[in-house]
Structures are given as C-alpha cells and as structure tokens.
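REVIEWER CHECKLIST
Item 1: Sequence provided? yes
Item 2: Single chain? yes
Item 3: Sequence as submitted:
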Amino acid sequence: QVQLVESGGGLVQAGGSLRLSCAASGRSFSTWTMGWFRQAPGKEREFVVAVSGSGRSTYYANSVKGRFTISRDNAKNTVYLQMNSLKPEDTAVYYCAGGGFWNSDRVGAREWYDYWGQGTQVTVSS
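Item 4: Structure as written out by the authors:
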C-alpha cells in the first residue's frame, strides 16, 4: 500500500517562503517520478513541478520557474518543494503525486500519476 503524506503548508506573507515535504511509504520510491500539483478554489488542479526518480531531471511550470525548487531524498523516501518569493496567486492546496519512470511528455499530466497525497494548504497574503 502506497501512502503519500504532505506537510509544511501554512500562511505566509507575499514574498515569503515555505518548504513542503511529502513522505512516501512503499517500495521502489527511488524509481518513482514525483510531482507537485496545486488546486485553488474554483479552479482545476494544475501541474507545478516534477522530478525523476534519480533527481537528475526536473520539469517546472512556467508560473513557478525560478521561484520554486523540487528536490528529493531517496534514503528518506521524501520529496520537498522549496517555495520562495511567494505570491498571492500561489494560494492553493498543494498535492504531491507519485508516478512511474520519468517520461518528459507525461509528467505534467495529472492522470499519469498513480498515487496522491491528501494535500496541504498554502495561503499567501498580500
């Protein structure tokens, strides 16, 4: 049974930073592509960033490029999302997701991921 548990969300002022964590249970974590998605009220869930199993490949949505950084620690079965220079429009519930082997054509698609966490709220005040 695979479980993904996010933590680290909260309330922050615009320009501030937060670090999200996603702890995974299950075998073969180091082979999974891990992604972060977010969903704002009244909007569809959107892709934020993904990282390959080795950590060597990443893919960012244009809206967060240069501000967010994804990383992973396979020894701890954990993936992180460092969010800097936060904006009010970053306010959303953030979800981590686990998928298969890295596929740069698919990592932005939420339907490609097999496992999802319960989400953590990030609120950025202006």
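Item 5: Key structural point noted by reviewer: The first strand starts at residue 3 and ends at 7.
Item 6: Recommendation: ____
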